[in-house]
Amino acid sequence: MKPVKSIHNIEAEAILHNVESDSTSRKVVRISEQVAIGGIKLALMAGPCSVESEEQFYAAALAARDNGATVIRGGIFKPRTSPYSFQGLGSTGYRILDEVRNNLKLPVVSEIMDVRLVDEMAPHVDIFQVGTRNMYNYPLLKELGKLNKPVLLKRAMMATVDEFIGAAEYLLSHGNGNVILCERGIRSFDSSTRFCLDLTVIPVLRERTNLPIIVDPSHGTGVARYVEPMSLAAVAAGADGLLIEVHAKPDQALSDGKQSLSFDELHSLSDRIIKVANAVGRAF
Ligand code: PEP
Ligand code: MN
């Protein structure tokens, strides 16, 4: 199989997967009647790293919506470095995801880590997130490939572009055309940021695939004050959207507080994105 060519074969793929394309033949992944990822309009996906409680998730989701987010993020299964850290609410979080998506009428993206949970989790999410640690989990990708539900595929922290595209091909070749790529930072030798957000990958991926590209500067930098400048740079470089962590009280977050924006910081980010978006011919 020639992975790059098969993604690039837009027409054949559009027929195969019955997906929309914009006027430049880039793929538009439809999430709901109102929400699509790709095309002229930038997508802001925002919310807390972890769903901690209904109150916490609802507050962050409202702040996200009020600042232009059209997709709410929130993890209930958390891949933590330490087994002693908060692991997420698990399946008891399904009800909270449902509450927020039904009340706010906004789609939700949440991470799946276990292939055994695909059927159980599917009714509670609008986009499955495959995290950086599972980009190489081919059995999981094959199962998600059998569904039509959109998948936000994060780049593994040590993946080459070929490996990243190969992982996307697992989803596409198993029948799921609704693939959204996400750059979230790769490992480097430098420790001043958590990861090295690879913005070069945006033009590279735009050349080699027609899939929408989301950038996650929260994990990419690991530092809240760097999130805004890197978000603006990502939009300027051609990203189709951003994935941003936000929390009412970042210093009290149960995961990733250091990189989470406060509601005020999200407001400032959203304000400035409009200007950069306009400058590069995108809407927000
Ligand atoms: C997350 O989105 O909270 C997450 C764990 O992301 P990543 O897989 O990029 O580390
Ligand atoms: Mn996180």
Properties at a glance:
284 residues; alpha/beta; TIM Barrel; eight-stranded parallel barrel; three-stranded antiparallel sheet; 11 helices; 11 strands; disordered N terminus; binds phosphoenolpyruvate; binds manganese (II) ion
State the CATH class: Alpha Beta
Query: Which ions and ligands are bound to the chains?
Result: phosphoenolpyruvate, manganese (II) ion
What is the overall shape?
Answer: globular
Q: Helix-strand pattern, N to C? A: HHEEEEHEHEHEHEHEHEHHEH
Mean pLDDT over the full residue set = 94
CATH fold field value: TIM Barrel
Q: Widest sheet: strand order?
A: 4-5-6-7-8-9-10-11
Number of helices: 11
Helical content, roughly? Answer: 25-40%
Radius of gyration: 17 Å
Main pleated-sheet profile: 8 strands, parallel, barrel
CATH architecture: Alpha-Beta Barrel
Ends apart, CA distance between termini:
37 Å
Q: What is the total tally of β strands? A: 11
Structure in words:
The chain is of the alpha/beta class. It has one domain (about 40-280): Aldolase class I (TIM Barrel, Alpha-Beta Barrel), CATH 3.20.20.70. The protein contains eleven helices and eleven strands. The protein has helices at about 5-10, 10-15, 55-65, 95-105, 120, 140-145, 160-175, 200-210, 215-220, 225-235, 265-280; strands at about 20, 25-30, 35, 45, 70-75, 110, 125-130, 150-155, 180-185, 215, 240-245. It has an eight-stranded parallel β-barrel with strand order 4-5-6-7-8-9-10-11, surrounded by five helices. Strands 1-2-3 form a three-stranded antiparallel β-sheet, with no helix packed on it. Helix 3 packs parallel to helix 4, helix 6 crosses helix 7 and helix 10 (about 225-235) packs parallel to helix 11 (about 265-280). The radius of gyration is 17 Å and the shape is globular. The termini are far apart. The structure holds phosphoenolpyruvate and manganese (II) ion. Manganese (II) ion binds near residues 49 and 255. The site of manganese (II) ion (MN) has 5 residues, from loops.
